[in-house]
Amino acid sequence: MILHSTLISVLAAISFLPWLSFSAPTVNRATSPKYVFAHFMVGIVENYKLSDWKMDMAYAQEIGIDGFALNCASIDSYTPTQLALAYQAAEETGFHVFISFDFAYWNNGNTNNITDYMNKYASHPGQMQYNGGAVVSTFVGDYFDWAPVKAGTNHSIFAIPMMQDPIEASYLSTSFDGAFSWLAWPTDGGNSIIPGPMSTSWDDKFLTNLKGKPYMAPVSPWFSTHFNSKNWVFISEELITDRWNQMLAMKPALIEIISWNDFGESHYISPAEPNHKDDGSSQWADGFPHDGWRIITKPYIAAYKAGASTPTITEDQLVYWYRPTPKGITCTNDTLGPPNGREMLADDIFVTTLLTKPATLVVTSGDKTPLSIDVPAGIVTTNFTMGVGNQYFMVTREGSPVLNGYGGLKIADKCEKYNFNAYVGSLNGTSSDGPPPPANTTSTSTLITTTSTSTSKSSTSSPMTTTSTTSTPPIPTTSSSSSTTSTSSPITTTSTTSTPPILTTSSSSSTKSTTSMTNSTTSIIPTTTTTSSPTSIIPTTTKTSSPTSSSSTSTSPSTPSPSTVCTSGWGPGNYIGLCQFTCNFGYCPPGPCTCLSYGAQIPEPPITNQAGYPLPGEDDSYLGLCSYSCNHGYCPPTACRLG
């Protein structure tokens, strides 16, 4: 979202050179293969070794993911080391990666540095190639010009930057070859929170404005964050199956999953990653596995690549997910307060059945009356009213149990800290779980341990266990009035995937249901308490920009000398584009903006003599930002208007 005037002058000076006029490889939408990537936060894996990268890649390959988009920041000293390890691991495992420059930290003046990275990796065996070009992307970075990078790289480049507004695809002349959207959750733009379900209105606008260029559509299972700088939820309760069904209908050229390991925003689908540092997000991510969402994702990826309208189900499975407390509970020791948007959430638990044949689903949520509904074959997502206590799930067919077990987390009616992350678990047909023992704890929720299920252990508090047990839930009454169901019928496509890393399986866990595992000799069956690592999730994604996906905790820039000015900066939420633009040229008002670096004054873009004002409803902190930006050619419609 920065328009760097020095780039304009450089392009003007060298635009006559013939080698600048080459176009990116053309894309035949009818014949180009489909690829699925996952957004990977490099900024939180400073301590990764080659084996860590290989493990993540093995899990991703097992469900059909083709590559990682490596979100990286310029300020992290370990970025070169970790990129080198990622590319080496990709080469050695047959995986692929590409760099996603995070423009919360990079800026439009970093052309030379970005070109150096592309020269280093564009022809690397681990680099993702698309239609003859090395793929490169961004977080934000809408206005970065790729022409000088393409001209300075000894390999074709296929640039798919993130665009914050689809209208940009219709007028930007930045030598982009496609576009990536971060609008993966129900929103009217920016970080506005609206009720679900999510529509495809943003996707439709991108497809229209791209005029045939490839669209990399976003898919995300959840969004919840609870930092000082950002504290909100998007309404994502059944988003994972809703969104994948949209992808099968839309058939975009490319898909990027948001995210593989962004624990700070609670949309990770990776297993536990013990080599992360903690930035505070362990408060809500530690002990909250999301492995079950990979179960759902796998058959959808296979169907997407096959051009199918529905996924194939070859094994009976169940995935469930839920929050640890009802939304209205007041936590006793949390100065941040509850997240914005919580009032739009439903106090429900969510169950996805992945069935080879029709069956009956029985759910007992805490103190609620057991409910029984008939579900067809295929992928079906059903919600049930949340009850405090144990969560019990059973699938029967022709009167016999097929799947049954308890959720790995009790829902509680008290809490110390707000946590709107989802606990995700799953059941497969290999075993049945007995009821979990009660736990004596004062926290908001209880992680459950049993002899047949292992738990994701928290680094801060261990699950408490006792020797007492409870009886089997009562026989349910048949009812459908308290649940809603969405379905996806099975088809006959199949896919073969690589064997995943060794992983313990269990018959019960909480995770979001929606898809079944496609043909595979060995499959990851993430369970109630089982995570891929013997140690706990120790996540770290310090991101204060939004739509956020920044890489790491930023450090304060050194104190500027009297002869220098701010040359790059950023701001949280809706300020991000304005602050990136204005700070680049020395105007970086403290409060809404934070300066990241100082240096010599960068020439400002030409003055347009157009007065800019904040949108109605925005506070006075936008006055100077909108006035300066609009008068210099950048007037973002999500924050400012022309007078």
How does this structure look, described?
With 643 residues, the protein is of the alpha/beta class. The chain folds into three domains: 42-306, Glycosidases (TIM Barrel, Alpha-Beta Barrel), CATH 3.20.20.80; 317-488, no CATH class; 565-642, no CATH class. The chain has eleven helices and 27 strands. It has helices at residues 5-14, 50-62, 79-93, 111-121, 147-152, 201-210, 239-250, 282-285, 292-306, 576-583, 623-630, and strands spanning 35-41, 67-72, 96-102, 129-130, 133-139, 157-160, 179-180, 215-219, 224-226, 231-233, 254-257, 317-322, 348-355, 359-365, 371-375, 378-385, 391-397, 400-406, 409-410, 423-427, 446-447, 477-478, 483-488, 565-570, 594-599, 612-614, 640-642. Strands 1, 2, 3, 4, 5, 6, 7, 8 and 11 form a nine-stranded mixed beta sheet that branches. β17 and β18 (400-406) form a beta hairpin. α2 (50-62) crosses α3 (79-93), α7 (239-250) packs parallel to α9 (292-306) and α10 (576-583) crosses α11.
